[in-house]
Amino acid sequence: MLRTHTCGELRLDHLNEKVTLSGWVQTVRDKGKIIWIDLRDRYGITQLVMEEGKTPTTLIDLARTLGREFVIQAVGTVNERAAKNDKIPTGNIEVSVTNLQVLNKAALPPFKIEDETDGGDDLRMKFRYLDLRRNLIRQNLILRHRLAKATRDYLDQLAFIEVETPVLIKSTPEGARDFLVPSRMNLGQFYALPQSPQTFKQLLMVAGFDRYYQIVKCFRDEDLRADRQPEFTQIDCEMSFVEQEDVLQTFEGLVKYLFKEIKGIEVADFPRMHYAEAMKYYGSDKPDTRFDMKFVELKNTERDLTSAKGFKVLDEAELVVGICAKGAASYSRKQLDTLTDFVKRPQIGAKGLIYVKYNTDSTFKSSVDKFYAPEDLKQWADAMDAQPGDLLLILSGKTQQVRKQLNELRLEVGSQLGLRDKQQFSCLWVVDFPLLEFDEETQRWHAMHHPFTSPKPEDIGLLASEPAKVKANAYDMVINGVEIGGGSIRIADETLQARLFELLGFSQEEAEAQFGFLMNAFKYGAPPHGGIAFGFDRLCAVLSGVDSIRDFIAFPKNNSGRDVMIESPATIDPSQIQELGIKLLPNKE
Amino acid sequence: MLRTHTCGELRLDHLNEKVTLSGWVQTVRDKGKIIWIDLRDRYGITQLVMEEGKTPTTLIDLARTLGREFVIQAVGTVNERAAKNDKIPTGNIEVSVTNLQVLNKAALPPFKIEDETDGGDDLRMKFRYLDLRRNLIRQNLILRHRLAKATRDYLDQLAFIEVETPVLIKSTPEGARDFLVPSRMNLGQFYALPQSPQTFKQLLMVAGFDRYYQIVKCFRDEDLRADRQPEFTQIDCEMSFVEQEDVLQTFEGLVKYLFKEIKGIEVADFPRMHYAEAMKYYGSDKPDTRFDMKFVELKNTERDLTSAKGFKVLDEAELVVGICAKGAASYSRKQLDTLTDFVKRPQIGAKGLIYVKYNTDSTFKSSVDKFYAPEDLKQWADAMDAQPGDLLLILSGKTQQVRKQLNELRLEVGSQLGLRDKQQFSCLWVVDFPLLEFDEETQRWHAMHHPFTSPKPEDIGLLASEPAKVKANAYDMVINGVEIGGGSIRIADETLQARLFELLGFSQEEAEAQFGFLMNAFKYGAPPHGGIAFGFDRLCAVLSGVDSIRDFIAFPKNNSGRDVMIESPATIDPSQIQELGIKLLPNKE
């Protein structure tokens, strides 16, 4: 080893020991008679010291040639520091250098290797190997490692077996777009990269594996958003002889264990929220429950506190629904205008925003004073459980749309009021999802989760008559408004599965071609089974209170699916293409 | 849960408890008044019993409809068995059924779900989910899981961090053929699937990660042999600030730990063997050292015990080399003919085989009695340390070829003499590999390991003058004649790396295009580093004493790279192809 200790290891216990350290030069402070070097490695920073008269002149001369990020090896004695630094664990000691060697030089990095770096996103991605030297990113990846390790420890204890499923599989048009791999040994045919190991894990249940998990790469050839990557990682799990409650208990246990092990936080039992409830009170199937601010409906099919006052917009609305922002009656005109602009952005698409200030002196000031008397507004305020000093924000329109819009507004206001503390965690299960949703565009039913999700037994009778009302044995785990995982109890019955495929518009031939092997497997004794998959990148980010997953991935791709560090994808040798039995389309050569 | 206990769990301790079990029907024995059912799950087999007069008739009737592999749930009471079965851990008890439910029916499986199955390879692969129900295969995959878990535990303790490297990377013509993935977002460009994360792990060292590992899928588009798969798994590791000895110690420690944890075997320190020694004494860089039978050279550049006796074949040979098969002088003419045929097979390619029987009465009988007197043969026997009763087997020819041939013969004879016990393990390191080998076909130097392997510092001077003599800081771990892992200390110096690329025939542009990002990274302070990669599939097989890796992979592909269960690769929708900016070559459509 080119070191006896790491740069994070030495303490007063080591006084007078002769040690060898290796690492990167973080800083050199040359005060003339004394030179201090901060030596950095993964484990920490240790101060080296060299002093004229004490340290050999050749070493001092050598030290003066060191630049940032040079790789050096230093031999020396551990001494107590005169001026201690209580900000770092090695801050009580320094190493008086008796030998020094440059292991490798370093050109000046294109940006500062510090928490607050001067490198822009593009530059940091191109030099990702330098970006990864930054404390912040390294800690993220260490956290990721620890989460993976703890996940495995927990599942291993519960007799789950990690089984690797294949990466070169078969394309299934259902779902997102697959990445394809031309086969050289089977010309004209293609493998696909898996979007998830869904069918394989179900086959493992048919195979009697009983409890399976895998931390596994999955792939989707989708147009990318900031928080999507073409390759991403799932904690993929499946269990046999279970009902929904067993899966919920097992994986609530996992996440509690992770919080405890990694964050030192005891998380309470997760509340369960029905899908319908989540939509009604939060306008989202992944509500952020760190704060309350539930939706209150002023006009719906059951009551109407807004009509017949001459305000056509609300008179014609299917739903009038609002939130009460506690203590926000002091919002300025400008702040309210900004909120109005926010909901009117095309991504959200509201026509406008109604506000009602319930002033601290119990008067009302609203954007609809023309139509509604203070008594009317008081009625709204009471319905919304508002107190003087609160601000009511109200949207109206078609039920589904307006709920989505108000969800966005609620999250924005929650952020503005500081109610979304990233170091506070609110976990829940959303349950009782509909099995199917009708797609207006294709005019057919789609599986809300996936086509293997089982309907609630009591709802099977509705499959033919009222498919929209059939609820599924499906569940999502939500933390701080982010969907961390989702799963379902699967269909284990060949006949029911065939019926579902039919309902989803698969011809018998299509179902056979795509999922024949699975339906065939079900003929030979499939156990009742169900499972869940967690988005591992996102889990890392949420536990760290970070929005983007990118800095939890060592070598991420940009929004064009490119790795700008290795310059991939790239053009390849024409002979490689030809060998695959394909050619580029004329304008792509 | 649809069970209170697993089928491997109940003991006499559970007597009189009311339990619920779920599983598959292994067998039904209907003796008229009594029906026994063997119920199987991953954890074991439990005997259920139903008795006329005691068990409700409806249940007995139901039991009579059960077929093999039906999935059932049984409720009952744990009783002591009259006739105990000491072959299974649950053999002291049985469960008297009070309730029975069929969870799923099963068609008759196409082969027997037993250790000794009647299913052929193809059939078992097509119905792999049934094959996986067999005890043998399930145990293999459980072993694989345990090996992976133990590997992670060991490396985690030594502060290694598991980092996921990308799967969608860039093609590098060096090495085997890549699988390619056309990019839809970057038309005309391709990703490649990694043959190993080599460059990424080196970048992680540049990034200061210090100790990295990953259990990771790798891909090679090669024509397949029985023990190769297009996708395979590596335990991939890298360390910074280390020398060769540190890597050897660390990973010898890993394998010892795995033997101890998984097999309960204490393995002694691994001997080190020089590459030159391995070639000279075993004709292989992965010698099977479970048995001795070292090569003895009868004629080489230093001595000659075979020439000038009128036998032209040996007179003209560059090398005459033999092995001594202890106690095999009794081999029959037929056995010797079979061995001769064995070495003359085209895969081995020897012209013939010389045998010398050193009979128990101290006489000699050889295939070259015409040329060599008993005194000559006695001289050979003495050189080969033979005793009466031994058989000498001798080959001759060009040094490299004849060593390879004799290696094959040695292994064959070792097998015949029962010297290759699969439950005995002989581990070693082969070290001091040549850095380069000259390829006659392309008339250029190739890297014996890979182009990032560092030469021994003392040999760098020879790079220009005598490249063949340059030894590498490279090492292979060999167990029972199988190369389990290999690695090297890498080049951390940009200039030396550029020089190597040049020697390997890369133009500066080619080197830049393929490895520019790595050479660029080395400019910014690369630490000395090195590592190793283990073939995980093979490690599983060797530890189990099995030759083929296929049954340690849940869903393997056949020799045409096909998964016959899911029928992959497959033709895909033409629109999917077009979207990728490619088309099939005319005769492939």
Could you explain how this protein is built, in words?
Two copies of one chain form a homodimer. The first copy, chain A, is an alpha+beta fold and 589 residues long. Chain A has three domains: 93 residues, OB fold (Dihydrolipoamide Acetyltransferase, E2P); 264 residues, Bira Bifunctional Protein, Domain 2 (BirA Bifunctional Protein, domain 2, 2-Layer Sandwich); 126 residues, GAD-like domain (Gyrase A, domain 2), CATH 3.30.1360. Chain A has an eight-stranded mixed sheet with strand order 6-9-10-22-21-20-17-11, with helices on both faces. A five-stranded mixed barrel of chain A has the order 1-2-3-5-4. In chain A, strands 12-13-16-14-15 form a five-stranded antiparallel sheet. In chain A, helix 4 packs across helix 6 and helix 5 runs parallel beside helix 14. The longest helix of chain A is centred in the first third of the chain and has 23 residues. The radius of gyration of chain A is 30 Å and the shape is globular. The two termini of chain A are 51 Å apart. The model of chain A has no long low-confidence stretch (mean pLDDT 95). At the A-B interface, helix 3, helix 4, strand 6, strand 7 and strand 8 of A face helix 3, helix 4, strand 6, strand 7 and strand 8 of B.
Fold-level CATH name of the largest domain in chain A = BirA Bifunctional Protein, domain 2
Give me the oligomer status: homodimer
Total number of β-strand segments of chain A? 23
CATH class of the largest domain in chain A: Alpha Beta
Alpha-beta content class of chain A: alpha+beta
Task: Give the terminus-to-terminus CA distance of chain A.
Answer: 51 Å
Give the helix tally of chain A: 16
Shape of chain A: globular
Taken together, the total number of domains of chain A comes to 3
Global mean pLDDT of chain A: 95
Which stretches of chain A are poorly predicted, pLDDT < 50 over at least 5 residues?
none
Q: Biggest interface and its residues per chain?
A: A-B, 126 and 125 residues
Q: How is the main sheet of chain A built?
A: 8 strands, mixed
